[in-house]
Structures are given as structure tokens and as C-alpha cells.
Automatic annotation (TrEMBL):
Organism: Nocardia veterana
GO annotation, cellular component aspect: cytosol
Molecular function GO terms recorded: NAD(P)H dehydrogenase (quinone) activity
NCBIfam families: PRK09739.1
Keyword Protein transport carried by entry: no
Keyword Oxidoreductase appears in the UniProt entry: yes
Residue ranges of domain Flavodoxin-like fold in the record: 16-186
A Pfam family per the record: Flavodoxin_2
Superkingdom of the source species: Bacteria
Protein name, UniProt field: NAD(P)H oxidoreductase
Length: 231
């Protein structure tokens, strides 16, 4: 589905590809994606919304997607060719996802594997994605002050910024990690037992999620501000 910003000059408006990777349309992840989309629209971006589940994107690499290393001009499967067109048309890419096992969920990983393919996103002397910018917004169930947050940020940044985006020639890539996504704070005790707090309710719950929304919007603001500075 493509969403157009009626106030933007469509001839000159830049495009943001917003990639959402959550099976439930009523998820917190989808809600944060909506907030980010509205902020990008207000900044003048034309939005191409790619909801991987809603579009039934198949994350499995197929034989048709496997690179023929010697042929630079090969065609990929029609589904992948279509996704590549959307990536090429985007000036910025914003992926919004729940953190699963300290990584992106399989559907988003499969999108990267299949679409950011050899001969397209890498393996060319002139990268086709050069100049694009990317923001990864990852929601995590872990509590904000859990000691795992810092290594999680490092792990995601190493995989997504260094391992994928910069390898493919993107100008800028940032991971905005949003811990505290779960209503019940959870942690492990020294014996490895899971301890679950009571679910947040009332004003405390509202304040908790308002703070998470603000952090998400802060990441989008910083991304837009950096966009205005020549790379
Ligand atoms: C398969 C799976 C793996 C998960 N792995 C992690 C994890 O490694 N670290 C973490 O903090 N939360 C983890 N979570 C919790 C999700 O990040 C959390 O439920 C989600 O961000 C909440 O947002 P949502 O309501 O949009 O799903 C995991 C959840 C699932 C279902």
C-alpha cells in the first residue's frame, strides 16, 4: 500500500520506505510505526508502507533468488524484483520491528537476505544503495534498566549498521532501541528463575508508554535532523 502526503510536492518529495515486521496490526510495534510514519509525512516525505506480514512477504530464500555470481544483469524472482524497485525508489528506509532473540525477526531478516541481494545491494563496484539512510526502530521486552540493554544495542548496531547498511554503502544507519515494551517487567534471578512483576496499570502505565513513544519520536527527530546535514 502506498500512502501519499497530499501537502508534499509529489514531483520533488522524497520517499520513505517504512518496513513493518509484526504479525499483529494492533501491536505496539505497529503503533510506533504509525507514529514514525506520521512524523515522516509531516517532514514532507512520501510514504511507501511495506507491512511484511500484511503483504505476505515470504522470507525464505528460493533457488530463483540465489545469485548467479557471474551475471551482473540477472533477474531475480518477480517478488524480489518488485521489492528492489521499492528500495531503489526510497531515499530513506525506516524498519520497525520487535526484537526477537536479540535480533530482527525472521521475516525482516528474510527481507534483507532476499532483497538486499548480491549484485543489487552488494557485490558491485558502485553500490546501488549509496546515499540512502536508514533507521532501525527495535522494540524490546526487556526493562529499560536491565544490564542486557547495552550489549543488545551493541549487538544490533554491529549486525544492522556495520554488517548490513554500511556494507551496502548506505550513508547513515542508526539503531534506535526501545526497551520496556512489555507491560510486565521481567528479569532472571541468580538461579535463572523468571521473575515477573505485576502488569503496569493506570497513570503509571500511561506514563511508561508515553515515555517509550517519546523515545521513538526522538530517534525519528534525530534521524531527520541528520538528514538535513550534508553527509
Ligand atoms: C520470539 C520472541 C523473542 C523475543 N526475544 C526477545 C529478546 O531477545 N529480548 C527482549 O528484550 N525481548 C524479546 N522478546 C519480546 C519482544 O521484543 C516484545 O514482546 C515486543 O517488543 C513487544 O512489542 P509488541 O507488543 O509490538 O509485540 C521476544 C518476543 C518473542 C515473541
Amino acid at each position: 500500500m502506498q500512502q501519499h502526503n497530499p501537502t508534499a510536492d509529489t514531483a520533488t518529495a522524497r520517499t520513505a520506505l517504512v518496513v513493518v515486521a509484526h504479525p499483529r496490526p494492533d501491536s505496539l510495534t505497529a503503533h510506533i510505526a504509525g507514529l514514525a510514519t506520521r512524523r515522516l509525512t509531516a517532514a514532507g516525505y512520501r510514504i511507501d508502507l511495506l507491512d511484511l506480514h500484511a503483504e505476505n512477504f515470504d522470507p525464505r530464500m528460493t533457488a530463483a533468488d540465489l545469485p548467479e555470481w557471474g551475471n551482473r544483469e540477472k533477474t531475480y524472482s518477480p517478488e524480489v524484483e518488485n521489492q528492489m524497485r521499492r528500495v531503489l525508489a526510497a531515499d530513506v528506509i525506516v524498519a520497525v520491528f520487535p526484537v526477537y532473540w536479540m535480533q530482527v525477526p525472521a521475516i525482516l531478516k528474510g527481507w534483507i537476505d532476499r532483497v538486499w541481494n548480491y549484485g543489487f545491494a552488494y557485490g558491485r563496484s558502485k553500490p546501488r544503495l549509496a546515499g540512502k539512510r536508514m533507521l532501525w526502530l527495535g522494540l524490546a521486552g526487556v526493562a529499560d534498566d536491565d544490564p542486557i540493554v547495552e550489549p543488545m544495542q551493541q549487538a544490533l548496531s554491529t549486525q544492522l549498521d556495520d554488517g548490513i547498511a554500511y556494507y551496502c554503502g548506505l550513508t547513515r544507519s542508526t539503531v534506535g532501541l526501545l526497551p520496556g515494551a512489555e507491560e510486565k517487567r521481567q528479569r532472571l534471578d541468580a538461579a535463572g528463575n523468571l521473575l515477573l512483576d505485576e502488569a503496569l496499570t493506570g497513570a503509571v502505565r500511561e506514563a511508561h508508554y508515553a515515555a517509550l513513544e517519546n523515545r521513538a519520536l526522538g530517534f525519528v527527530e534525530d534521524f531527520l535532523a541528520a538528514d538535513r546535514v550534508p553527509a
